[in-house]
Structure formats: C-alpha cells, structure tokens
Design the sequence.
C-alpha cells in the first residue's frame, strides 16, 4: 500500500539563515532512513516558514521491501566441534538470526571457511521504523546556535511547540521532550486556531484555508507578482536582491505586498545609507526611478494583511529609522576624517595586535614602500598613501560606531570623504578597500582600491599568524580563509610587482619585535600556497599544473611566492595544452630532462656558476651561450607576463639540449668536470623552473623523452 507522509515541526520563530540548511538536513536524513530500511518512496519535498519546517513524501510503501541477504558468522571450527555438532557459538549465531541448522552453508573467505546463511529481511510495517528514525533525524538537525526551553535536555534552534507526523491518517508516534506527535497544528499566527489534519494529503489545502501558504515557490511567485504591480503603478524598477526576497518568503506565511512613501527630507542622503536602512533593518524593497535615481518609495511584505493603519504604521517606523540615519550622517560630517585619526586608538584591532591606529600606521608604511612599485607616478602614490591614512577613520563615526550600519564600513568613509572635498580617487579607494567581503562579492575596480585592499588583508593575516590564531576544518572564527581568498582574488586580477615572501618580511617587521618573523613567514607562506591550490582546484584547473606551478623556483632556487604570476601561469598552461599541444611538448621535454638529470645526480653541495675554462666540448660552450642569450631575451617578457614568447624561447632550446645529452657525458668520471657540467645545466633548469616544475606534469602517453 502506498501512502503520503507528513512531518511538520512547529516552533517559535527560527532565524531565516537557519532554515535552508535545516531543510537540507531534514530531506537527506529522511532519504537515508528510507534507503537503510528498505522503504520505497516517491517524491520528497521540504518547505518552511520561520515558524514551521515541513517534509512531505508521496508514494511511500507502508511495508518494507523484502530482500534475501547473506549473513556470515563465525569460523567453521568455532561453530562446530570435532564431531560435527554445533558449539554454543554456532547455536548463538542461529538464535540471533532465527535460523535452523539445515540452513547453514560454508563460505570460503581469506581467513578460512566461515558458516553463513541466507536470510530474508524486510516485509515489516514501517510505522515503528519511522517513529524511531524521524526522532533521530529531528535531533540530528544542526543549527549555529541552539536552546533549551524546559526541564528536558532537548535542544533545537527555537522551542518546539508541536509536531505533526502522519502516514496517511495514521499518527507516527514521536516524543521529543514534553512534546508528543499528533495530527493537530496551528494556523496563521493572527488566527492562533487549532487545525486538525485528518489525512496527510489534506495538509496543504487545510493550511491554505487557515492563511498559511505551505509552498515556498507559491509564496515567492505571489511576492514577485505584487512587486511587479508596484513597478508598473509607479513607473519604477525594483533593485534586485535575492537574499532580501528569500528572507521575506520565509518570514511571511500569507504574504501581502504594499508600498510606503519615503519623505523627501531623506532623499539627499547617500543612497547606500537609505538602501541599508530599508533593506537590512526593515527588510523592505527599494526601487530606482526612470532616471536611475533611488525612488522615494519602498515595498513592504506583510504577514498580517494590509490596511491604512498598517501602511501608516510602517511609514512611521521607516521615518524613525531614516531619522536616525540622517542624524548620524549630519553629526558625522561636522568632524573631518583627518581629525578622527587619533580616535582610532580607542578601537582595538585584535588582542595583542594593538589598535586601529597601529594598523593604519602599518598600512601607511607598506603603502610608502610598495605603492611606488605599483603606480607609475608620484601623484598616484600620494593618493594611495592618503587613502591608507584615512581608510579606517569611519570606524569612529556614529554611523558605524553605533553598530547600526556596520555593513557600510569603508563605503561610509567614501561618501564622507567626498562630502568633505577629498579627491574622488582617494574616496573610492577607501570605499573599496573592504572588498571582497565574501565569496560572491566583487573585487575593487580601481587600482588604488585594489592595492589598499591587498595590503590591508596581508597585514591582517601577518598579525593573526603572529599571535597563532587558529582554525579547524569546520570553524574559522578569525576569518583566515575568507581573508586569504580575498587576497588571492585581488592578486589574480592585478599584476603586483612584488612577492608574498617580501611582503610578509616587510609587514612582520612593523609588528612587535617579540614575534618570530621567520616562523610567521614560513607558516603564512605555506597557508597561502595551500589556499591558492584549493582556489585553483575550485576553478577546475588541472591538478598537475597547479602542483607544477606552485613548485616553481625563483629567484635563487627559492619557492616562487608571486601568487598573481602563479595564477596566470596555471591558466596559461591549461590553455596551452588544449590549444597547442605541440608547443606544450616542446616546452616539457627539455625542461623535464634538465630537472631529472639534476635530481638523479643528487649533488649534496650547492652548484655555483659554471667555469667556462673547464669546458671540454664545443656543445658546452654552445649551450652555455644559448642559456645566457635566452635568459637575457626572456627577462623583459617576464615583466609583461608574455608567457607565449617565453615558452617559444624555451622551446627553441629543445633540440640543442637533446643533442647535448646525446653527445656529452654529464656524469663524467672527473669530479670537477661533472660538477661544472651540472652547474651548466642548472642555468637552463632555472629558466624552465621559473615557469613550473615540469616533472610534476602528467601526459596521457608520456612520450616526451
């Protein structure tokens, strides 16, 4: 017999951020329960509001499937004595599996013969299985924070008020704390009436009659339709915000959308302040007029119907919220950003890492040293330095300091800087330097913003590694992964002319002297290389190309830590093997041959520059000259990141290197000659290893030697 299963967990209001992961856990848990217990099901759907989590499954077979499975028991010697009689061990095996002696057969295994039997499983009513399994599923749902609400030890995101668990019209018995499952729930909160669900299939329609639209997609469609009606009525365009839409879908069980006007007194405020106040604090939608400006109205999603009193009440709340924003903004403008610098001493950066003025001073020093390497003239460098000087000052403003508009850190500094007459380039850099805030956020669009965002993240990472801030596979309380990912994404788009190693060295010196700079450098470099590897894998770059490039060596045979260049080379190699395999192989063959012979030679001492006076063969002079010529030729191409030119120049060495190995014995009997020839080859190896450790790269046929 096929049936419909209903599970509704009704709670106090759950934070919307908790709901989607909870539904995923609920659905996967139920499907796993059915799979493990031979329960066949049709479609499984989950839905939710912030007051209830719902699972509906159709075509649930009320009886388990039957299967015959082989049960393997103890060894033959343990199950039978020397006379062929069952031992106590053998009898226990039969009793446990409800089998008879004649059903035993012998199974050959790697550990000798064992007794076994075929046993039919399944075929039972699923109600007891569901009762046990659903209880475990509910208790296994994980939330960022949980709470207890009575004398029992049950925890959940919010107090559970009722559980409906039905298999058609049969109640699935569950007990969680003081709550027992039933066929009774409550309708919309404004009705607060008991709703009896006689049959699982009637749940959706009965809830609809009691002002609860169970389906998330239907609530979404309703909200979007009414937002479109507002667009048409006022000739405005909705500012799209998927998170805001999803939040409202989950907050409203019976959504109704209406518009509220915004007083003209507030429309002079920066649009970021208005949008933040309306979206983040009131969860209302904003619009643009036909000129692209912010329109003086907002749309509210109500879970309590709509009438003039409700509209007026919402407008009053919006007016109060925007009045606060206006007060903060106007008070903040009375103090110049430059005059706020000293106030940064009162704002902590991290424990044992000083305050935000200390951080600002480090950013200024890093800017002073590295901005001239990145920008083409002194004026651009000066603008970057000023941006570094002012970038944290908005932390002292009322707008940010009162915790009302924390998401505007940086942006607040930008529009205060503009309002106070600072250069727009400086203001934009201040506004961008927190980007990207998360994985989906864009990196800065200006060079000044990118540079400031870059050195800001680097300083944070150096400091956190200095105090040994830790993270685990599941928890990262200091945001190390997010910070490093932002740094990598910025470096991917901007060609910074410095290495991670140099930056860490310089930045670490600006912290307390007692920090072990060498240890910080080693740990942070390893962390960044590992994060870069993970990032590249997520972008679907070839694993062997990633390893090869991250093991490249430059300069002085040290691991290259120019992350931006590494990213570009990985991308280039992935494209090259696809678009020009001939050239790829021409690069690979000589590079791998040089690396392999140096590795096989296993030289314990460092190889110095070769001594031409010790050359005995003409090919030694020829290849020495070719290496030196190639080095001079490709050096300018490295500045331009012209990897195509570099590859062709290195590939041109293929035939010469091949002839050298054919005609010259590198591992000569004379130690001085052998060492000199290995030193000669090391020059060539360094040229190729600047691209990648080509021995790490795999080809399907490997026919390159």
Sequence:
């Amino acid at each position: 017999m096929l049936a419909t299963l209903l599970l509704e967990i009704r709670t106090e209001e759950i934070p919307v951020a908790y709901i989607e992961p909870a539904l995923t856990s609920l659905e996967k848990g139920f499907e796993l329960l059915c799979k493990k217990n031979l329960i066949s099901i049709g479609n499984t759907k989950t839905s939710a509001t912030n007051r209830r989590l719902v699972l509906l499954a159709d075509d649930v077979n009320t009886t388990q499937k039957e299967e015959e499975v082989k049960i393997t028991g103890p060894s033959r010697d343990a199950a039978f004595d020397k006379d062929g009689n069952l031992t106590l061990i053998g009898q226990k095996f039969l009793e446990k599996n409800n089998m008879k002696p004649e059903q035993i057969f012998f199974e050959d295994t790697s550990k000798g013969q064992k007794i076994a039997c075929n046993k039919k499983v399944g075929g039972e009513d699923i109600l007891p299985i569901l009762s046990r399994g659903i209880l475990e599923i509910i208790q296994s749902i994980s939330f960022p924070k949980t709470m207890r609400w009575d004398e029992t030890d049950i925890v959940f995101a919010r107090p559970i008020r009722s559980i409906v668990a039905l298999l058609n019209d049969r109640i699935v018995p569950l007990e969680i704390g003081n709550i027992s499952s039933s066929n009774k729930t409550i309708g919309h909160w404004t009705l607060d009436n008991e709703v009896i669900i006689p049959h699982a299939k009637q749940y959706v329609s009965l809830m609809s009659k009691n002002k609860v639209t169970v389906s998330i997609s239907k609530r979404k469609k309703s909200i979007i339709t009414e937002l479109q009606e507002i667009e048409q009525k006022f000739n405005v365009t909705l500012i799209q915000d998927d998170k805001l839409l999803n939040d409202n879908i989950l907050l409203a069980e019976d959504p109704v959308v209406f518009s509220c006007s915004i007083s003209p007194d507030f429309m002079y405020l920066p649009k970021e302040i208005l949008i933040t106040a309306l979206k983040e604090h009131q969860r209302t939608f904003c619009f643009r007029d036909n000129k692209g400006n912010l329109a003086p109205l907002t749309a509210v999603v109500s879970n309590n119907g709509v009438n003039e009193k409700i509209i007026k009440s919402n407008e009053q709340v919006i007016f109060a919220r925007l009045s606060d924003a206006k007060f903060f903004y106007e008070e903040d403008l009375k103090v110049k950003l430059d005059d706020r610098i000293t106030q940064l001493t009162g704002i902590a950066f991290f424990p044992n890492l000083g305050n935000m003025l200390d951080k600002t001073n480090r950013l200024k020093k890093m800017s002073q040293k590295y901005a001239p390497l990145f920008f083409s003239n002194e004026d651009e460098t000066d603008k970057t330095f000023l941006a570094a000087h002012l970038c944290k000052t908005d932390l002292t403003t009322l707008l940010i300091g009162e915790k009302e508009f924390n998401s505007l850190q940086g942006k607040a500094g930008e529009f205060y800087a503009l309002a106070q007459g600072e250069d727009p380039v400086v203001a934009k850099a201040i506004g961008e330097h927190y980007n990207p805030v998360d994985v989906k956020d864009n990196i800065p669009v200006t060079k000044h913003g990118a540079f400031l965002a870059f050195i800001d993240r680097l300083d944070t990472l150096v400091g956190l590694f200095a105090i040994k801030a830790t993270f685990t596979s599941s928890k990262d309380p200091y945001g190390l992964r997010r910070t490093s990912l932002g740094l990598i994404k910025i470096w991917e788009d901007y060609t910074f002319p410095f290495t991670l190693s140099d930056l860490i060295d310089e930045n670490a010196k600006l912290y307390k002297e007692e920090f072990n700079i060498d240890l910080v450098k080693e740990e942070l470099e390893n962390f960044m290389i590992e994060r870069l590897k993970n990032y590249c894998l997520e972008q679907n770059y070839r694993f062997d190309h990633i390893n090869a490039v991250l093991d490249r060596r430059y300069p002085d045979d040290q691991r290259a830590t120019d992350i931006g260049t590494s990213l570009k080379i990985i991308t280039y190699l992935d494209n090259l093997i696809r678009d020009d395999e001939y050239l790829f192989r021409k690069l690979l063959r000589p590079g791998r041959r040089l690396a392999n012979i140096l590795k096989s030679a296993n030289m314990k001492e460092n190889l110095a520059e070769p001594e031409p006076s010790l050359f005995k063969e003409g090919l030694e002079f020829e290849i020495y000259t070719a290496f030196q010529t190639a080095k001079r030729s490709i050096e300018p191409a490295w500045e331009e990141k012209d990897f195509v030119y570099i590859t062709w120049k290195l590939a041109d060495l293929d035939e010469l290197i091949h002839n050298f190995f054919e005609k010259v014995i590198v591992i000569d009997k004379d130690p001085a000659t052998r060492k000199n020839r290995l030193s000669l080859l090391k020059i060539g190896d360094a040229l190729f290893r600047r691209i990648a450790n080509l021995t790490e790269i795999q080809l399907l046929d490997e026919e390159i030697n």
User: Anything to note?
Assistant: The chain has a mean pLDDT of 92. The first strand starts at residue 2 and ends at 11. The two ends are 67 Å apart (CA to CA). Residues 260 and 311 are 7 Å apart (CA to CA).
